[in-house]
## 1
Amino acid sequence: MNIDLHCHSNVSDGALAPAEVARRAACNGVEVWALTDHDQLAGLTEAREAALAAGMRFVDGVEVSVTWRGSTIHVVGLRIDPENGTLVGGLAKVRGGRLERARQMARDLGAAGIDGALEGALRHAANPAMVSRTHFARFLAEIGAVADTKDAFRNYLVPGKPGYVAHQWAALADAVGWIRAAGGEAVLAHPGRYGLSAGAMDALLREFREAGGEAIEVVTGSHSPDQYRHFAAVAAQYDFAASRGSDFHGPQEGAEFGTLPPLDPALRPMWRDWAL
Ligand code: AMP
Ligand code: MN
Ligand code: MN
Ligand code: MN
């Protein structure tokens, strides 16, 4: 079964509208699909309708931004109730402050010789309140300051580089708690991306489990094949279920639907007991 449980629409930092993302997933062979926009549920109704029309099964999702020991961590929530007040209220708090942060990022970039970054980033953001580093990356690529958006994250927008502004997101236990309050299951997104030491990763995995986290992403567009193997072993060692998702953001931006390998059959897929 081709299942993809992580991707973005222009409701957050994806390039395509939810219905376009649905059609693209279906065209690329996805059979069970979740939309997981950052800190926002506003795309789910459109996505669900388009998914069902395209013959896919649909899973309501979200990707919550978390600050843990000073690092930004992402937690995906799946099979959530989008009407749940605890989750809706929690997400509203998390996504506040993005525009103010973007103003500061633009001032930083201006000091580094890049003018017009706020207006430039906002041109790429369907919703100004959800303006993200991804929108700044698209602007930097568009003006030729960098070769592509990957380069924008190498040279700008990350700690120690111009355009990075630290931000306080949700607490780990809160994010997992909101997801569970909404009847959902919490997944630690792309653990290989955080650059944590082995000791810090161990602490993160234990805290995540204690908070009620059930799964970790093993096969994701954000992992290398070596990391598929490494985090398969981690899932087995810590007895987490395993998840799989492209983290698709847009055409020619990172991973595409339908291109990832399946999960190692020795793992427990998080969808094992779902009625699909
Ligand atoms: P923000 O929530 O505004 O901090 O933006 C985070 C988003 O930037 C993530 O969801 C990714 O889509 C993107 N991102 C972060 N780091 C990288 C990277 N190294 N390469 C490409 N995209 C990245
Ligand atoms: Mn993103
Ligand atoms: Mn993420
Ligand atoms: Mn993502």
## 2
Amino acid sequence: MVSFLPLELDPPARPATHRPRARGRPKTPNRLAESPRVAYTPAMPDTAPNRPDLPAEIARRRTFAIISHPDAGKTTLTEKFLLFGGAIQMAGQVRAKGEARRTRSDFMQMEKDRGISVSASAMSFDYGTYRFNLVDTPGHSDFSEDTYRTLTAVDAAIMVIDGAKGVESQTRKLFEVCRLRDLPILTFCNKMDRESRDTFEIIDEIQELLAIDVTPASWPIGVGQDFIGCYDMLRDRLELMDRADRNRVAETIQIKGLDDPKIAEHVPAHLLDKLLEEVEMARALLPALDPQSVLEGHMTPIWFGSAINSFGVKELMDGIANYGPEPQPQRALPRQISPEETKVSGFVFKVQANMDPKHRDRVAFLRMASGHFRRGMKLTHVRSKKPLTVSAPVLFLASDRELAEEAWAGDIIGIPNHGQLRIGDTLTEGEALRVSGIPSFAPELLQTCRAGDPMKAKHLEKALMQFAEEGAAKVFKPAFGSGFIVGVVGALQFEVLASRIELEYGLPVRFEPSQFTSARWVSGDKEAVDAFTNANKQHISHDHDGDIVYLTRLQWDIDRVERDYPGITLTATKEMMG
Ligand code: G4P
């Protein structure tokens, strides 16, 4: 699990060319500026910029998320990104200590117990001349809606697969979400230090299951115990893995083509023969890298490596820099927003409450859509048409959050607030623009929520509304009767909710089976809606926005409404638009 709060760090990573440092804790382990950097100079861009017209500060930004099946190595890879970005000193050994150092993504005991990342955060770090913004996505499928919204805030995704397992179910689902948005995808095939599948088989599986062209950016040499590194297909060089030091950057050997006799000095004959044969086949059978096709989401370059051994990670990072997209235009109404527009705009894709249990703050995560934001700017909150002075925006660095003095299109900042900002809200310098395409899905599981102490009903309402606004659950207030019906996508969310309501509000609650199993938003002209709601009172409720929701147990009911009330539309998704 990645840590976002002060961490206990082991001694700094040993730079490859230096003698070992004395062991011991650095005095100020959390100051990024004082972190010793890994002895590695990131590659400068190999390719010409796609958009030479973009301001340099915007063009250097890469905003992405990692998608993977649990256990494929997302957390380990994230840590290595932070390590090579100079944001932490030693990955794999970071650990939170004690209550005060509870990592931010760990603040729910639930999450700690189960080892699942249920909350998403954003991290920024520099890599060479680039600024990377990495948005964390929850790995568990029960939190798919959160993941979906997170993916609306990024310009690309890194798909991590386990070399032994190939494309797993959750990867596939997340990939489909990326495809809906035509997100460019870069693939990292992890755990090559273990027995893994044949390279062609892995590539074929991705091509077939995900219907995307795959181009090898690197080619593994040996497998499992015999895995010694990769041949970099794009830069024609060998990268050899150092099994002895997991935090050291791999050795790079420059070669001049695969017939360079220098290769034989580093690769045993039997592995070399296989490599030569496979690379020749790969070049003949697989498509060559087409950067435009990558940007359009039709082709994915694949790197092979071992995150735990820090191997293949910097090549992937160079790949993100070189072939990943710059900040992209955002769909909005009544017009699209381009990143280079001088006026600032951004949209909220996530709200997280009580990040610090000691303060009841809420942080709205804003993806900057355009312009150059400076701290203290007065923006317009388009939904309420009210001005909002953003005086304490935060930037999420690997081990801390800091005041953001400025931000550019592509960046993600956190805005502490008392509930004014909701998912889907747009902030601009005055223009009434509303970013679109952030969905809310009808829940698949519904339960009635009751406070253990009936006198605490008001408190319960407050807590539930907060979670609804945060996007953690759907909360419906039935028009008839008392209590609340809570809707979620996956059963685990009920457990997380119960635990958070108790932890954050000191309120024990019970979830009980509800008579309903489905919810649909109701729309239509006023007369038709009124007639419908009057005739179906027992099934009507309102969500936290006050929108009308039809609750039922039977698909048959939904079909009946559609047949009997032609003026009414029932929908399973609602666009969250501020
Ligand atoms: P996730 O976030 O995608 O769920 O995966 P995570 O990084 O937590 O990795 C899952 C397990 O796989 C961890 O082992 C991790 O150490 C291991 N792992 C990650 N990358 C590699 C790799 O390149 N090679 C090998 N052999 N293993 C790798 P664990 O036993 O579950 O946890 P831990 O005790 O190592 O922390």
